[in-house]
Amino acid sequence: MVVNMKFAKFYSILILFIILGSIYACTFSSKTNNKEEEFPIPTMTIKPEPTSTQTIFQPSTIIPQTTPISQLEIQETYNAADTLSLWVSEVSTDLIGQNALSILGPPGALECNDRYESWYNDQPESSPSEYLVNLKYDYSVIPTEILIYFSSESVINLRVEMLNSHSGLGVEIYKGEINTGGNCPGQMSIPVESDLNIDTIILAFQNSDPPVHLDAVNLRGHIPNFLDIPVFWRIPIPADYLGDPESDLPGGLATDHFGNIYLANGNNGLSRYDVEGNLVQDYLVPSISNIRDVTIDMNGQVILTDLIYKWYVTFDQEGIQVDAGGEDFGWNSPRDIAVHPKTGNIYILDETDEYSRIRVYSPVNNQLVQDLPLETVGTQMHKGLAFDQEGFLYTLDQILGTILKLDADNGDVVNELGYLELIKALPADLAIDNKGNIYVLLNASPENTAVYIYDSFGSLKYRLGKLTYDGEGWMEGVFLFPVGISISPDGRFLSVVENGFLTTYLLDVDI
After folding, report:
1. From CA 390, how far away is CA 342, in angstroms rounded?
2. What is the C-alpha to C-alpha distance for residues 138 and 87, in angstroms, rounded to an integer?
3. Whole-angstrom distance between the N-terminal and C-terminal Cα of the chain?
4. 45 burial via Cβ count (<10 Å: 0-12, 13-18, 19+)
5. Is 411 in contact with 450 (CB distance < 8 Å)?
6. What values do phi and psi take at 119, rounded to 5?
7. What are phi and psi of 420, to 5 degrees?
8. Each residue of 476-506: pLDDT tens digit?
9. In terms of CB atoms within 10 Å, which end of the chain has fewer, N or C?
10. Quick one: pLDDT band at residue 114, thresholds 50, 70, 90?
11. Strand 478-480 relative to strand 460-468: parallel, antiparallel, unpaired?
12. Residues 6+ positions from 181 with CB-CB distance below 8 Å
């Protein structure tokens, strides 16, 4: 079985974070704040989407280049934010008895003719006209180049097709004879221009003698619909040293109509930043607390959840504590919180190893209204809570790899969105703007992007930001284990929190 090492590394980090933390006790108090102001918005440039006109290089224009592998610089990824370099993750072939699995991953450090697969049949009268090799990749790209690595000296009759396995759309990009020219090991380069998203390559070989030895196939291309925009601002925030057994990760985010950002920062309390990233207010909460999430209600009041006291607390617009409620939460709850845009009821995610549910409270008397059970059961099986303007409730199901759209009255699943992409990723949080666009934050993804942006129907529109799994290249626009996301109601300001940094983008584009 082939293991995705990035995901394995991520889960190791996740296990470390879960066991960190401590138990404390204290009470809430108050503090006044400053009045919000709007600030001028700078102009930013969005990378244009691919055009709808498809252009494919004809076979007669492709000049294969065979170069000894020893002279090659094999790059795992491109430097550009919106490009990928992918190796084969799944392979199948109609050749009986061949070890096609050796094509997985990058080229091996083997000598010439030292590969198992030999595309040759010593009984040509009974062999088919072509041998097909189907190569699947973890992610679809808009292709720019295909590199085929050989470990043989051969004259090859080759046909190459590209395919999108979801839509079934495909195109032949090469057909002809290839002479490796005595270079062994070597490579063949096929440049491609297309606006078709590709996740599958089909190689069709004709019978040859001497046989063809195939080492690896590299697919290079652009990430579809990647928003290549600069970070508006990125600021350091109070953070714990995660090697400390009493440390904790930050919690969640909320953004109000003025662009103010409210940060639930775990053991570091609750803070408010203005639209330019200036600290406006540190709320007076107990020094021993664990603020897990924050939201804004219909009246502009701030509501947070505290994992230590196991309740939710409401502050007015001046930062004065005005209410508190909640009861009977599990050991690792309450966490995610959202407010119904019409009724004002407070919805809080509550999960243990025995149950998963959303608890609903009245803002009038803080009494429990009802519990909405969730089908997937377990601690942190769901991430994020958010409402659209119609009053539908959304959360992420990490087992199903989907966005659940729920009826807020009874918890029934109305729709499941985003499963084509999220089943291969690890979602962490979500937010929704007034147009119904859904912003999903990721801890891991096949193409290492940090945010998927969906429309209200679940169609993926854009991707934004990059991920690092080990801290390498951790800079503006690159996130290490991000945990919270928020969007301003008008869809202009998108913010992401990770341990030690708060980042905001200005989305100067009509999402």
Report:
1. 8
2. 8
3. 40
4. exposed
5. no
6. -80, 75
7. -60, -40
8. 999 999 999 999 999 999 999 999 999 999 9
9. N
10. low
11. parallel
12. 66
Q: Which two tokens stand for residue 186?
A: 């070597």
- For the record, the structure tokens of 177 come out as 């004879």
Tell me if the bond preceding 245 is cis, omega within 30° of 0. no
Can you tell me the distance from the alpha carbon of 8 to that of 454, in angstroms, rounded to the nearest whole number?
A: 27
Whether pTM > 0.85 for this model: the answer is no
Structure tokens belonging to residue 87: 């190796």
- Tokens at 382, concatenated: 């769901």
| Two tokens, residue 352 | 């243990």
Q: How high is the pLDDT of residue 216?
A: 87
Backbone phi, psi, residue 267, to 5°? -70, -10
Question: What tokens were used for 277?
Answer: 């990233």
69 vs 365, residue with greater confidence:
365
Distance, in Å, from the CA atom of 211 to the CA atom of 154, rounded to the nearest integer, reads 7
- What local confidence, expressed as pLDDT, does residue 109 receive? 60
Output b/e per residue, 367-396; b: 16+ Cβ within 10 A. eeeeebebeebebebbbbbbbbeeebbbbb
Residue 6 amino acid letter: K
Each residue's pLDDT tens digit, 435-444: 999 999 999 9
Q: Is 465 left (phi over 0), alpha (psi -120 to 50) or beta?
A: left
Calculate the CA 16 to chain-centre distance.
Answer: 21
Longest dimension (CA), the chain: 88
Kindly state the tokens that stand for 379: 């601690």
Instruction: Report yes or no: 323 and 343 within 8 Å, Cβ to Cβ.
Output: no
Q: How is residue 7 written in tokens?
A: 């995901």
- Give the tokens for residue 57: 């290089």
CA distance 311 to 294: 12
Spatial neighbors of 343 by CB under 8 A, at least 6 apart, are: 391
At 63, the amino acid letter reads I
